[in-house]
Amino acid sequence: MPVGGEFDRWLTVGFTRTVLVVVRTVTAGTRLLDVLSLFEDDHRIQVVFTRDEDNSAVFGSGVRDFLHELGVVVLPWEQAVGTRFDLVLAASENDRLQLLDGPGILFPHGIGFQKYYPGTTVVAGLHPERLRGWDHTIALSHHDQLEELRRIGPDVARRAEVVGDPCLDRLLADAHRFEAFREAFGSTDRPLLTVVSTWGPDSLLGTDPGLLTELLARLPVDEFAVCAALHPGITSAHGPWQLRAWLATARAAGLRLVTPAAGWQAALIAASCVLADEGSLALYAAALDRPLLLAGRPAASTVPGSPMAALAERAPRLEPDRPLLAQLRRAMDEHRPGRYRNVVEAAVAGSSATALRELLYRRLRLTEPGHEAEFAPLPVPDPPPAPVSAFVIGACPHGDTVELTRFPATDTEHRLEYRHLAAHATRASLRQLSGAAIVFTELREPEPFSEWAEAVLRRWPAAHVAAARISDTVCLTRDRAGEERELSLRADPLLAASLVYLGGAATTRAIAIGERTVRVTSRVR
Length: 525
Hints:
Blueprint: E1 17-22, H1 26-36, E2 45-50, H2 63-70, E3 74-75, H3 77-81, E4 87-90, E5 104-106, E6 136-140, H4 145-152, H5 154-158, E7 160-162, H6 166-173, H7 178-184, E8 192-197, H8 204-207, H9 211-218, E9 225-230, H10 232-238, H11 240-246, H12 248-252, E10 256-258, H13 264-270, E11 273-276, H14 280-287, E12 292-294, H15 307-314, H16 324-334, H17 341-347, H18 353-364, E13 390-398, E14 401-408, E15 420-424, H19 430-434, E16 438-442, H20 449-459, E17 465-469, E18 474-479, E19 484-488, H21 497-502, E20 510-513, E21 516-519, E22 521-524
Parallel strand pairs: 1-2, 1-4, 2-3, 4-5, 5-6, 6-7, 8-9, 8-11, 9-10, 11-12, 14-20, 15-16, 16-17
Antiparallel strand pairs: 13-14, 13-15, 17-18, 18-19, 19-22, 20-21
Helix pairs in contact: 7-13, 10-11, 15-17
């Protein structure tokens, strides 16, 4: 790659400093992006990346694609080793950092140092042999972590600086944007449950691989949206295809799956409740003051006495044998602001942007920009849509109001009054469509509805109603008698198709969905 003094004549922007970012895993890369956001708009600095492919991590899969999607300059490791840099940034002491030429800063790849390396009593991020022999600063999130370094050696402790946690600061700086993030996850009208899992057999996913599917099957569609942010190590070890296959039913039931490289920050900010295991994201959720439930086994890799261990003792745990919906609502209702403040303050000391930028520019031997240090806003994620292909619906009439409860159609049994099935005309399975009382679709314009509905009712003899959502608030229906209606409500308009099936479209004035009630307008077309 054209990096080095001999290529200066080919440059367009005459930068004066070159920063090398060493990316061992996707997790390390995403954490370093928070640091790099402090360099935005500084034309004096060119940032380039590298990865040591000959010494790759167990969870190194996915790094190549991650860097490609970022659109960054990636130097081959051999070229990086032979080039002088003004600053080297890394988030893993397991890289061969001593081979690189230039002063460096080593960051933790989680919130502090909460875990042991698997099968050892060595704290992850604090491997004694790998913290020596490189001219680097060790960035800490809390003063208490200095004691850990003193145990390794006074020379190591002298190279440490407390700069807080840039990832947490960036989360807190974007907390006011929760409504935009909620909209991205399709939860503007209902709470968002964010499920996070680290890797390993004690994790949420490792302890109960079917938990996500069970959650989607048991939670009413109109009362909770569900997204999942899974540690990149899971995808790296098992492969993206396999993970999608294992979660096929959950995704068909409405699960939004955050990609390993981005989006988990927004998913935490947008969350109404977080279900987590003993990973860093549980501490970040606590720092954001979100209602929290823990799942998975108590992790043998959690360092005793650490903030993560304290959080695991304090936070309520999900009880698999009790109703899920009731536990989530209780966690939200009983949560009190500041519940985990002491735990978070033991993990992170103060804000990060000012202290970290001062360290970065001091090591670069540059004057800081004149504006106040702050982290760049997080991008609004664009998770793939998660439309439910079929619903199991129950109804309970109360005068001119009908209470409707919808669940994704899975193998889970639900005891419901006036139970019926609604299936999408093209996404649902043959079995679902063959037994559906309502067959539905989406149309951009109302004109083709009559022809489409007539064909659907002819094709699926078990169906009583054909329905089409034509906007966010309007639904068209046709029954077996040929009557067509236009129904509107400030919720998913397909809910109104159940009124036609129940024979109450002309008399029902409102639909109760969970804890809210919406008015219904109905007219014959």
